[in-house]
Amino acid sequence: MRSVKCSMSVSLDGYIVGPDGGFNWSAPDEEVFRFATDEVRQLGVHLLGRRLYEAMLYWETVDQVPSLDFSTREFAAIWKSLPKVVFSTTLQTVQGNARLASGGLAEEIERLRAEPGEGDIAIGGATLAAEAAAAGLIDEYRIRVYPVLVGGGIPLFPRHERRVDLELVETRSFGSGVVYLRHRVTR
Fold it and tell me: How many Cα neighbours within 13 Å face the side chain of 44?
């Protein structure tokens, strides 16, 4: 059965988006970018909320820019070919290798887990990931902690009144000061 992974960048004070709505502080250097590319390469499908989907539309056409370096082209190719499921109540259509979710989040994850296929299920977008976490649908958290305090914004983990025990599976430090933490949910 396929696992659900939540992979996010977070400030040291726990925010994925700052108080101004921006996340430019999480722009990865080459080392972190290659690491993230390798993570995406292992996926079978990516679930996205509307805002993340719209932000990631950049990758659908960026490969047409002739001056791109190899790692950017590589990520664009991997991202474009990756099947995506978009959760939105406002979008009527989506582009590229994406489809609008036909059901609720739990229903969609249950269906995807049961499908044969390689690669895990990734979930992204603040609201969607929080919904999945609250429902106990996430199997693993892959967090890149950036050495910055943003002072507010959208937290990685909204307040829940439910305890979740985690097992540390992997850590890695990058030259830029980013620290990667991979935790598996213990059930």
Answer: 16
Q: Are 166 and 141 in contact (CB under 8 A)?
A: yes
Burial bucket for residue 46 (CB in 10 Å: 0-12, 13-18, 19+): buried
Residue ranges with strand state E in the chain: 4-11, 15-17, 43-49, 84-87, 98-100, 120-124, 140-146, 154-155, 166-173, 179-185
| Helices and strands (DSSP H and E) totals, the chain | 6, 10
What is the value of pTM for the model shown? Answer: 0.91
Tokens linked to 17: 């988006």
Buried/exposed 126-165: b ≥16 CB within 10 Å, e otherwise: bebbbbbbeeebbbbbbbbbbebebeebbbbbeeeeeeee
Alpha carbon distance 164, 187 (integer Å): 9
Burial of 74 (0-12, 13-18, 19+ CB in 10 A): middle
Encode pLDDT of 123-152 as tens digits.
998 889 999 999 999 999 999 999 999 999
Amino acid found at 140:
E
C-alpha distance across the termini of the chain, in Å: 15
* Residue type, position 157, single letter: F
Closest by CA to 40, choosing from 14, 15, 3, 76, is 76
